[in-house]
User: Fold this.
Amino acid sequence: MTVPTEVATGRPRSRFAAILRYTLQSCIPPKRWAAVLLPCAGALLFGLLVHAVDSTAERAFANVAAEGIFGLVMPIAALVIGDAVLGAEVRSGTFHFTWLSPTPTWQIVLGRWLGGSIVALLTIAPASALAAIVAGTPDSAGPAFLASAVGSVTYVALFIAIGCLTQRTAVWSLAFVFLIERLLGAALTGIAQLSPTWESRAIFVGYIDDPPSRLVRDGIPQGGDAIVRLVIVTIVALVVANWRMAHLRLSGAAD
Amino acid sequence: MTVTGPDPATVRGDPAFAVNPTVEVVEVSVWFGPKVALSELSCSFGPGVTGLLGPNGAGKTTLMRAMTGLVGVNQGTVRIEGNDPRRNRAVHSRMALVPEDEAVPAGLTARQFVRYVADLHGVVDRDAPDNALREVSMLDAADRRVDAFSKGMRQRTKIASALVKDPQVLVLDEPLNGADPVQRVHLIALFKRLGAQGRTVIVSSHVLNEVERMAERVIVLMHGRLAAAGGHHAIRDAMDDRPRHVLVRSDDGRRLAASLVALESVAGVTFDSTRGGVVIQTVQARELATALPRLARATSIRLLEVRALDDSLESLFRELVR
Assistant:
């Protein structure tokens, strides 16, 4: 390369900031935003659905949110985000521009997770809160926001870890949500204790007044304890992702 | 099989190895499920431009990915300046890969993309991204989105993203794909200049002519194994000395065939009714190329078509591994 006569130097720019900026700029293009916002619109429809339920608005919203928002909208929207920030890049063959650098893998994992979490906090969590307002229970908006925020950032971490473990992130993530969490988690409390869906429900239930008894599940911590549980799950998922990222086999389609 | 040639940069007697290697590949095997991509491959690369030649599926891309650490090897070792690229991430600041894939990050301009790579490598020179884009004549398009570029422009932007980190080892997988003739000349001059600066430049291609214009040394892969190595003259000689078949269609095939058998460069002549011409077998292709027009002029025979039937790199490879 030619060396310029006058070199404009300074401190090197932060690698972590570069990864975060890249995640927000490149990993979530307009089509992905649309794919995230679609289930968020579904959350608002679930809020409207509450008006058709013959119960108090608080109880009706709690039941609808438990199944519709925490069980469906949140995992699907988080899956779109989690896949975008890593799995889709690995599949398309653009991830090696990041991987082939001296940047420590933990910075890559953390930057991707933080970028995905920001998107989740700007979309899924407000949509859940808005659904509560649409349902006519503004008092539930705070707990819904908190539960969705914690649940979705945990999901993003889990889907990043799945993206590091497998090539087919979307398929394995769906299998995780619907087979492991929904089916096994419904039967086995041990699995539900580590599940973002079940723990998000527990966060929500822990912070609302007079929750429906069917949403209170024995053996699953509620409120703040559920938040702690999901924070631990998030940390473990990020550690696994970091460990696996160093061993990724980024083979392309060619040759 | 190795083809020895006059290449001072290689270890005496084994042209597969460079004298001062920066990239060492030792007994490397890579497989993907049942498919063996590389099989016990040993070679090394040093300063200057080395061509990595082979037909599609030969294992060039896998070797390049293994060299850069993108793909872990199942057996053997890869060392970049003595370091394992899978274990020591710091080595990535000294090397760069330009992949063959067309994929580029979505939603970024060329300048943003190159700056991102510069930031990841801790480049302190604020002008480095623009300088790198200028090197590949992409500065005018720096503010356009990379995902909207043509194949050639994408390739040049990826080369800029590799140059921005000022690498000592530059691995380029089919870098001339999609480039127009003017850009090809420019890029070849750039690669040669980088090699002359003492950098290790490894360029893969399946076109021999392309490689010999920029590489002093050539390593030929076939079915994941080393098929040949040496100076490009040695490879070219190997190609010239092997038997070739040339189809000649003319307005008087019978008379042409009778005249051809008198030529020294012709080993045999057969009629090919399906192709509608005469097939000449020769081991002196260059001499035949000179003699054939002379013969046509002397005998007033009009040549309609002259086409080598097996003048492809694949046929050379087949010959080399026979």
